[in-house]
Amino acid sequence: MVSRVIPVDDFDLVIFGGTGDLARRKILPGLFRRFCAGQMPADARIIGAARSEMDSDGFRTLVRDAIIEFGGDDLSSRRELPDFLLQLHYVTTDARGDGGWKELAAQMRSGVVRAFYLSVGPGLFADIAERLTSFGLADAASRIVVEKPFGRDLETARALNHDLAKHFDESQIYRIDHYLGKETVQNLMAVRFGNILFEPLWNSQYIDHIQITVAETVGVGGRGGYYDKSGAMRDMVQNHLMQLLCLIAMEPPSKFDPDAVRDEKLKVIRALDDVETHHIVRGQYSAHGDMKSYRQDVENERSFTESFIALKLQLSNWRWAGTPFYLRTGKRMKARSSEITVVFKDPPHSIFGDEGGQHHNELSIQLQPNEGMTLDVTIKEPGPGGMRLVDVPLDMTFADALGPEADDVPDAYERLIMDVIRGNQTLFMRGDEVEAAWSWTDPLIEKWQARSDVPKPYDIGSNGPEDALMLMHRDGRRWRDIKG
Ligand code: NAD
């Protein structure tokens, strides 16, 4: 396969919060990878803007150190690093005051794409958006990128949308959900809508149920204060799991265009039924050996916030009525794994009798730690001895067929930043999608808050609370094993 790196137009990318954790861990190493791949124009500039006092040389040192720390050996040893660093600049900027803004405006070139990445807390979105226009940095063609969390409920999300809309048109706003930037997520759309094979079966007549698991082994880390006010529902389900659910469940858009795709995703969120109380399982991890409990980690012995949640959801539409969607996500679980599994129904009749056993197809889409897609297919166990059937995974990533280039795909952040420069919003959340997701999330949270529901304890390194297993067992189903 021939590499198809298509260079993007010349750009000035300003990263607000350019010295922060996300910028150092993901955004800047990602941009360097695109530079190495030959996708960044020679004159493109990346301008860090943050509170810390430093000059451009100081910023280059910070970025070089970040690439060494987070980019892995392969990246940090690339000989292109000095050239990349020359494309970096820095302006000390106060998002809440006037300091640095004139200098920043003076740095911007005309006739190139201008993009502003807000890698800062949402409390600064309104201040920055306002100054981008009042200091003349943004024009009608500029793009603004915002990070999660996009609000903590419908009201705050609406307020953020409103603040951004005062200065930017929706077509200029890029709300990042990095799950959408994953190669496999896009491959899911290619498999669904590029083949005749799957779509006729993609409904409740042939699909028994769908599972979405996002399991983490880490705890709340240094984010305890934020996390305890948020919990797994707000931090993971409202955005990442909801987006995955939308892509799995949506109707085929008429074309692969930002609004056509996002219109279909929005319809999925609007078709979600209210969730019954016994279809919600919340959990908190307990202490184990040297490892602290959730409550110790967040330093709140009376916390009722969930570090795990499992849900059984139903969609009220023709395609999915009768096919449940089971979602679960949690911290300190058995392994780090993000996976979607589409479990097809058993064949209506087995011609092989008892000897053949019960078999069905499963399409499994892995997003983390490794990306991949497998389809379990039932075949005859080779050799003599009758018609014994066995399920074998068919590798749908076809890495061998596509050659070594297939392994060399950009990571989610890299791809999404390049999409911003290209002006392609397909893989970004639209304002109404985010609000619809909160409209669905808020009443669920209110429901358990009204009952003062206490999360169920679960062991560190487990699959979550026993009740989450029961959520499926009661329906005669079981979760797919979490494998890292
Ligand atoms: P951080 O605290 O490490 O960095 C914040 C950055 O904002 C710093 O560069 C700081 O100088 C700058 N800043 C703060 N106040 C400022 C002001 N008044 N004026 C100018 N600059 C100011 O935070 P982070 O972890 O990099 O996260 C940034 C955003 O991205 C947050 O909204 C976070 O929720 C989100 N996010 C982070 C991650 C991650 O892995 N770190 C992942 C997903 C989303």
From TrEMBL:
InterPro entries: G6P_DH, G6P_DH_AS, G6P_DH_C, G6P_DH_NAD-bd, NAD(P)-bd_dom_sf. SUPFAM superfamilies: Glyceraldehyde-3-phosphate dehydrogenase-like, C-terminal domain, NAD(P)-binding Rossmann-fold domains. The active site is at H240. Residues 189-480 form the Glucose-6-phosphate dehydrogenase C-terminal domain. It comes from the Bacteria. GO terms for molecular function: glucose-6-phosphate dehydrogenase activity; NADP binding. Catalyzes the oxidation of glucose 6-phosphate to 6-phosphogluconolactone. This is Glucose-6-phosphate 1-dehydrogenase.
